[in-house]
Structure formats: C-alpha cells, structure tokens
Amino acid sequence: MLTRLVALSFASSGLAFVLELVLARKFGATPLLDAYRLAQSVFLIGAQMLVHQLLPHVIVPGFTRLRAAAGERAAWSHFAALASALAIASSLAAAILMLPAARHALAPGLHPAAAAALPAFFALIGLAALANVLSGAFAAVLGTYNQFAVALLPPLCINACALAAVAATPADLVTAALGGGTLAGATVALAIHLRTAAAIPTAALLAIPRWSHIRPWLGGILAALITCIAIGHTGNILVQRSLSLQTPGSIALFSYAVRLTTLIYTPAALFGNTRFPALAEALADGDPHAYSTILRAALARTLLLSVPAAAALWLVRHPLVKLLFGAGKLDPSSLANLAEMFGWIALTAPLGAVITLLWKVFAAAGSHIGIVAPSAVALAFLIAILPVYSSRGPESIAIAYALWILVTAAATLIALRFLSPPQPVRK
C-alpha cells in the first residue's frame, strides 16, 4: 500500500513540477501570475491547512469513537451533518474574502493588471478550495477504512487539469486557464471522493446540519486546531502581503520556489499521514508502547526521506534552477533570485514534514498547548522580523519565511518534551 501511495505522491508532485515549468516558460513572473499565486495562497493553501491540519485530527478519532459507541450508520450520519456544516462555513468565509476591501488588505501593492484579474481568480479558486475542503473531510473518514489513496487525488487532479488547460489555452487567457483548470481538477477529485464513500453500504454523504449531530465533533482539541490554522494562515498571508509590495513578479517567483520544495515535503509528510490512524487507535486502545513505537518510526522515516533530498537540492540550487527555468521567460536576474529563494525554502522542507507529524501527535494526545503555543511563538517572531527583511528585497523575505519555519519546528519540539500522553484506558 505504501508503495502505491508514494507513487501517487510522486506523480502529483511531478505534475506540479511540470506545471511550474510550463508556467515559467509560457508566462514567466508577470503581474497576472502574482494574482493567480495570491488567490492560490489565500484559498487553496488555506483549504490545504484545513485538510491536513484540522479535519483528520478531528474526524479520524471522532469517527472512530462514534463508530465504536453507536455503530457505522450513526457515525456516518454525524459525519454527514459535519460535512454539510463545513460546506456552509467555508462558503461564508470565501464570500468575505472576495469583498474588495478584503482583497486590497491582502495585497495592497499589487500591480494594476494583477489587481484587475484578482476577482476572477478569487471566484474560481475560491470554489476549488470549497471542493478541496469537502474532499478532505471525506478523505479523513475513508482513511479509517484504510483507503488512503483518495487523499492524494485533489492535488493530482488540480495539477493535471491546470496543466492541460494551460497547454491548450493561448497565453492571453491565463485567468481562464489557471482558474478554470484548478476548479475542474478540484471538482473531479470531489466527485471521486463522493463515489468512493458511496460504495460503503453504511455511508451517508450529506445531511441537514443538526446540532445533536455536530455537537460530538466539538470540544476537545477543535478550538486549538482552528486557532493553530488561523495563526499559520496569518503568517502565510503576511508573507504574501510583503511580497506584493516588492517588484511585480515577486509573488510568482516565491511561489515557484515553494512549489519546487513540495518535491521534498510531500513524500516525506506522506508516511506520517498514513500512520495517524494507527497513532489514534493505539491511544484509544490504551497502548502507550505501540504509540511510542509508531511515533519513533514515523519520525525516522520522515527525516530519512527529507534531509538528504533537501541537502542535495540546496547544493545544486543554481544549476538546477537554470536548467529547469533557463529556457523560459525569466531573465538572468530573476533566475538568480529564484535559486536563492528555493535554496532557503528547500532547507525547511524536512522541518515542515516534522511539524506536520508532530501536530498529529499533539492532536492524538489531546494537547491544546502543544498545538497552539509553538505556532503563536513563531508568528510573533515572524511579525517582528518581517518588516526588517522586507526592506531588503524578496530574497530576504524568503529567508524570513525559512526562519519562521525553523522557529515553529524548534518550539514544537520543545513542546513535545513536555507532552504527557493520555493514560492507558482500562478495559
């Protein structure tokens, strides 16, 4: 199973990699790409944070408890109500972010061409983000049935459809190609999730959100996770906002660097994702030994996959960027800036994978402080250093971003030292 998941992960990362090459060669680092990347950061990255950092940590243990206590049908009925509530809440949040005042606050320094394209990008990619959130909810439940492959489909489908749309569309239709392709891919992925869930005899897909069915999901670490996601997304938005005040194309260059780094992060984080149901089950069964064994193995595998790859890519960052992007529309100065950005961000990939894994540990253990405190400390650090680094140019913003990830990882590891797992359950 793990081999197939790794293959799917690399396929998704490979398509994302090819998409970045096509975008760089066809469009370079233009104001329109800035608008696309900003919409992607606000909506898709926000949705991905919900999918990876909130939904599994709430749904996997919650669904497992409900299924054990009340049976399969009752667990699915409760989940259907939660999925419907998520759809309503996500739609309201997207509508607020689409307001003109919100768009201006997010990126006050955008080029006029980018500002003009932003409403269309926000609308299309906002809808794609809604589909992603629902896919993530169903993926979390399907993970309790050991069906992990569907969780990899949203980025795979989005990258494939966006790549096909960009390749088949003239350069002057970049908004329709990237926005429409992203929405098409997210819709296809959601349809596959719904079809997979519908194949389970006891499944219920959507239902009227009733308080009695939503209440069991509330409490516990939900508030801590929401706070943590809000803190993390605030940091991402602050970085994007600082980039919008730099020369046009800075957001696009930064995003190229971040997307290249997913070649390291995605496979490394995958193993932790597959072990989370086992972590939750070990704690639910009152087996601290199994819990510790699974955690140590997941940490070792995560670092083994990511550290050598990050070091190798840092060493070859300049020739690699020149090889990959040199034939496109990026000038030599932009290529050099991209290489430096990529070098700094690539070094954070192992840290990002470890942070993702440790958040799962804190979620499984029900530790509020372990989830919120490290993120809050790191955000305060970012807010303090970002004005200084922003004054030095976009490459220095990438350094500030890397330092932010470093401080988050350090604070999270410190919090782990004080973690006391729940006591074994006496049966």
Radius of gyration: 21 Å
Count of DSSP H/I helices: 16
Order of helices and strands: HHHHHHHHHHHHHHHH
Mean pLDDT: 84
**Oligomeric form of this entry?**
single chain
Q: Helix/strand/pairing class, anyone? A: mainly alpha
Distance from N terminus to C terminus (CA atoms, Å) equals 32 Å
β content, as a range? under 5%
Parts with pLDDT < 50 across at least 5 consecutive residues: none
Large-scale geometry: globular
Specify the biggest β-sheet.
none
Counting DSSP E segments of at least 2 residues, the number of strands comes to: 0
If you had to describe this structure to a student in words, what would you say it looks like?
- This protein is mainly alpha-helical and 427 residues long.
- Helices cover 82% and strands 0% of the residues.
- It has 16 helices and no strands.
- The protein has helices at 2-26, 31-70, 72-97, 100-106, 112-143, 153-168, 174-198, 211-214, 222-244, 250-284, 288-315, 317-325, 332-346, 349-365, 368-390, 394-417.
- Helix 2 runs parallel beside helix 5, helix 2 (31-70) runs parallel beside helix 10 (250-284) and helix 2 (31-70) packs parallel to helix 14 (349-365).
- The protein starts with a helix and ends in a 10-residue tail after the last helix.
- The relative contact order is 0.13.
